[in-house]
Automatic annotation (TrEMBL):
Family: Belongs to the YjdM family.
Coiled coil: none
Name used for this protein in its record: Alkylphosphonate utilization operon protein PhnA
All copies of domain Protein YjdM N-terminal, residue ranges: 4-32
Organism of this sequence: Halopseudomonas sabulinigri
Domain Protein YjdM C-terminal, residue spans: 45-110
InterPro entries in the record: YjdM, YjdM_C, YjdM_N
Length: 111
């Protein structure tokens, strides 16, 4: 038997997957497969496992060399108003004295 969930609208067992959605062929109801992820946000967490969101403030937990220059982002640097993006470096921000940067969430903690 299929391990897909029953339709929440009509309780039909004949649901199927269509991309990122589940579909019921009997009542044509559609719902997202990842309903929990949509409620909790982006799924990006800091070094301690706390969920991050756009507009949060974070603190750098490790000295980070800035690629292409001799600058270093020091431990304890506070970064305000972050923006979460897709990719390897999942935080887009501006750091005072350095400018626009992308950071990895594993090197910051939520403040």
């Amino acid at each position: 038997m299929s391990d897909l969930p029953s339709c929440p609208s009509c309780d039909s067992a004949f649901t199927y997957e269509d991309g990122l959605m589940f579909v019921c062929p009997e009542c044509a109801h559609e719902w997202p497969q990842q309903a929990d992820e949509a409620d909790t946000g982006s799924g990006i967490t800091d070094a301690n496992g706390n969920p991050l969101a756009d507009g949060d403030s974070v603190t750098v937990i490790k000295d980070l060399k800035v690629k292409g220059s001799s600058l270093v982002v020091k431990v304890g640097t506070k970064v305000k108003n972050i923006r979460l993006v897709d990719g390897d470096h999942d935080i887009d921000c501006k750091i005072d004295g350095i400018g626009a940067m992308k950071l990895k969430s594993e090197f910051v903690k939520k403040s």
